[in-house]
Amino acid sequence: MAAAAALIALGAYALPTAQAEEPEGPAPKAGAGAAAYEEVWRTDFDGAAGSSPSGDDWIIDKGHGYEGGPANWGTGEVQSYTDRPENLQLDGEGHLKITALKDGDTWTSGRIESKRTDFAAPEGGKMRIEASMRLPDVQGDAALGYWPAFWTLGDQYRGNYWNWPGIGEFDIMENVNGENRTHGVLHCGVNPGGPCNETQGVGASTECQGTSCQAGFHTYALELDRSGATEELRWYQDGREFHSVSAADMDAETWANATHHGHFILLNLAMGGAFPDGVAGHATPTAATQPGGSLLVDHVAVSVEPAGGAG
């Protein structure tokens, strides 16, 4: 979500750099040696329709930004986040449901973040974070401004809010304007510029295959692999690797500051902001944007493989 320390001018945000070509050939399984992973945390969003996600696991964010942090969450998004069930609820069918609504000229939506901030790959081991999600079923002009995201921030961001992007941000799944395409991005270093080319970050994208991103559930995952001579981040959609960044792509201090510590997980449905505006070429949402689109999340899970696990 590019939690920038200052708002980006409308239209200044380009697509994340290093856009990937579509993967060719058979789809590899996500994470060689995945059987060695041990699931250490999971949320399945079971519960009564209309109830809130578990307060033991999740914090519900509200308003237009953290107290003392950048306005509009640092991204220029226009909605106000609420804890109202109309915006944020369990749907009674095992899903988290985040819905973007409009009341007059005011957009509202939902955003949650994990209470835990210690999701990390052990030295010499690996970590995998995944979620199964169905993106808002809105396309074309009616989808302008929709920005669902599944991502992480470095633990030191909580309570500070001005140390981005040095503490690291892993965008595991971002989608804008209802496109049948999702993005994976690493944010790191300094803003602007630096080894992650901020504020854009180092990213790539891929289309959803089989069913569109909006027509069915797909699994989005990130692996942080610290088991080899060169550490690496890898992004997957339905088991297909479509993006990677390695420690060799930057200086050791920048890499360590982004990856060698805990992260917390975020799920949200933003409206408007630098990314959808940049892709559309103008400010979003527009008068044509249709409220009522919902992000559905089936589960979120974190798995870890200790040092010496199967590679």
From TrEMBL:
Residues 43-308 form the GH16 domain. It holds the Pfam family GH16_XgeA. One of its GO terms (molecular function) is hydrolase activity, hydrolyzing O-glycosyl compounds. The keyword Protein biosynthesis does not apply. Residues 1-20 form the signal peptide. One of its GO terms (biological process) is carbohydrate metabolic process. Keywords: Signal. InterPro entries: Beta-glucanase-like (IPR000757), ConA-like_dom_sf (IPR013320), Glycosyl_Hydrlase_16 (IPR050546). Belongs to the glycosyl hydrolase 16 family. This is Family 16 glycosylhydrolase. It comes from Streptomyces daliensis. The lineage of its organism: Bacteria, Bacillati, Actinomycetota, Actinomycetes, Kitasatosporales.
